[in-house]
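Let us practice reading a record.
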Amino acid sequence: MTSLTTTPPLPSETPVIEVMDRLDPTDLHQVSSILISLVPTYPLCFHAPLSLSKASSYFREAVSRADVRFLVARACSTDRTILGCVQLVLVQNENQTHRAEVSKLIVRPECHGTGVGTALMKGLEECAMREKREIVVLDTGTGKEAERFYERLGYVEVGAIPDYWRKVDGEGFCTRVFYKHLVPKRETAAGGLVTIR
């Protein structure tokens, strides 16, 4: 018997963004499959080949964490295919509860460049503001595509960290760190920054 893999249609309209507190088996399989398909090109903290069981375990743990808001982008079609996902990690240190971090923004390869990633990041920022988080921090592997994507969304690059992650053979690669203030800032007469409330 031959198994056929169907490719979801490219989104023709803005996908639906949902915050999930659990993943049913179909959703879990979909997000795990997206991660597995990306790891050979974008390591995302894993070595290739990534097994389905390891990817599924990762997502089961992530969606169950109290400090994580797990967002998915679904196609507007009736099958509601997951096109991508991202995690908002709410920093718990008592002097950093105004801050959140972005983790694992992943989008189906066939949906790259269609606005799914942008929709997920906009949803993540709205979620962060509802959680009273004023600044969002992220890191991404170097590459003009990723850097331009975050810059277009208003993220500011802080710099690069060399040898941040390594391939199985020990070859090291750097990552770039970005941030974005979600609450507008304005300069005071003394030159400092004040949050506008």
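A brief commentary: Confidence is low (pLDDT under 50) at residues 1-6.
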